[in-house]
């Protein structure tokens, strides 16, 4: 039995996040479940607009007032959904950390880096004295390769990669048990990307931190994650061990994502036709069926049932059954006319 099944630090069950629009709600996260164990990294992948960032923020309770949240998020045995806002707010920082996608929009341009660290530690560790705050701050920055001589500088005086490392240091200085990293390597060169992945790996090994890594980059997931969850149109369609999933992807969407990945052996570009659906009115039954090259009649009629694929991962796809739930004729391929009509819908 794996660590996350034994003693999950984060246990998410049937989480739903809907945004009000004045009309029909946007179903950004629709019935998502997963677990992360101590010292484990779960990679969350999928196209833009599939709900990954909303899921990460939903776990941390960082959603606008217009969002409706149902389901369960249990952190270290404590239920966060429906808990008092002040209680959840007190957990953010020292227990639940977040690395934002764009550091320049999160760092105050009018404050020095020292002021950012002082504010974070004074808020969450008020018992610390001035010298201890400074020591911990410099230690966290040094771990990211930022020299102490730059402690008094402003965000605009740093490169994009250094600002991202500062954001990571701000998250780690409070030593959270769970860290949500939302596209932490976006727009960074491969050298800085490798440095950040190394930092996250050290964090997991040395502090037993659980990490939810949100990314588009499947190469990063293959390198840095124990397990992978593939998200499409607000739902997790496949989840399992990273090596097994990449070696034998079970869901057609996962296979198409991997086909679209560019490597040194790439001789032609592959892509998934069409675009992710509107989350206000997603397709009925399987939400991927309008774009799926393996779509069958049952895919347009019934929502798939989660099963175990041969390689062991959880997958929601009628290609894997269960046979007893597929009606007669359900395995017939969707005709091109029906496929086009479904895509328009």
- Uncertain residue ranges: 1-5
- Per the CATH scheme, the topology name of the largest domain is Rossmann fold
Q: Report helical residue fraction.
A: 25-40%
Instruction: Please indicate the count of domains.
Output: 2
Q: What is the 3D shape?
A: globular
How would a textbook summarize the main sheet?
8 strands, mixed
Mean pLDDT: 89
H-E order: HEEEHEEHEHHHEHEHEEHHHEEH
Rg computed from alpha carbons, rounded to a whole number of angstroms: 22 Å
Full CATH superfamily name of the largest domain: P-loop containing nucleotide triphosphate hydrolases
Strand content: 15-25%
Distance between the termini: 43 Å
Structural class assignment = alpha/beta
Q: Helix count, per DSSP?
A: 12
In spatial order, strands of the major sheet run 6-7-8-3-9-10-12-11
Give the C-level CATH assignment of the largest domain: Alpha Beta
